[in-house]
Amino acid sequence: MAPTIAVLAVQGAFIEHERRLQALGCEAFELRQAADLARPFDGLVLPGGESTVQAKLLRAVGLFDPLRERIAAGLPTLGTCAGLILLAERVEGAGDTQGLSADAAARRATVEGFRTLPVTVSRNAYGRQLGSFRGEGLLASAASEGPDETAARIPLTFIRAPRIEGLGTGTEPLVTLDGRPVAVRHGNQIGAAFHPELDADDTLYRLFLERA
Ligand code: GLN
To answer: Do 17 and 50 meet the contact criterion of CB atoms below 8 Å apart?
Structure first.
């Protein structure tokens, strides 16, 4: 049966994910408030947007604790960009702090996310001029498998993206760009620094839906 996927819709780029999931044959619905959790679902998508805002709104609408519990218990979850930041165990880097006091800069660096994915990310780490860029990633599994490299290349779109600085125990790279991981997996959680909803390639969705 087609999986039902809940897409967090408190802020950010959730509609694009819904469309892509529907095109792949999934049922997709929006999670906006705690009451939406009454509907059963097989997987969760955390979209891009502004992670600090999303973390605050998640608490304000009562979604934070129940979602954290389900993710920690193994709910298949795909976090993209801000969604990766929400999942990350460690978040570094304040991003654009020009003109801010040291205190304000420190506050901006802190994102009170779920901290369920053993990975360290730094926010907005690709710098201002490189705020948005495109690249071509290499699928980690395919990279070791063999000569047909074309099948292993996937297009990547980055928008003020977090950089993955380090992987904790049990976290494996899924996609790399210039040798550095840009998507990772830990158990049923996948975190990606890029925006798969903006490119035609379905690889990341398929990797997520394998578990959902
Ligand atoms: N820069 C955003 C943040 O720090 C993430 C950007 C995105 O999701 N496209 O939360």
So the answer is: no
For ligand 1, whether the C-beta of 85 sits within 6 Å is: yes
- What is the 2 CA–ligand 1 centroid distance (Å)? 30
CA 101 centroid distance within chain: 29
Q: Residue 114 and residue 126: Cα distance in Å, rounded? A: 23
- How many domains does the chain fold into? 1
49 lines ligand 1 (CB under 6 A): yes
| 137 CA from centroid of ligand 1 (Å) | 19
Q: Per-residue confidence of the chain (212 residues) as pLDDT tens digits?
A: 799 999 999 999 999 999 999 999 999 999 999 999 999 999 999 999 999 999 999 999 999 999 999 999 999 999 999 999 999 999 987 555 666 777 666 666 679 999 999 999 999 888 665 679 999 999 987 655 555 555 589 999 999 999 999 999 999 999 999 999 999 999 999 999 999 999 999 999 999 999 99
CA of 7 to the centre of ligand 1 (A): 17
Ligand 1 contact, 123 CB (< 6 A): yes
Report the CATH number at residue 30: 3.40.50.880
Partnered with residue 31 across adjacent β-strands are 8
Please give the positions annotated as active site: 81, 195, 197
**Dist CA 183 CA 50 (whole Å):** 19
Which of ligand 1's atoms lies nearest the C-alpha of 158?
9
Range of the domain at 148: 4-211
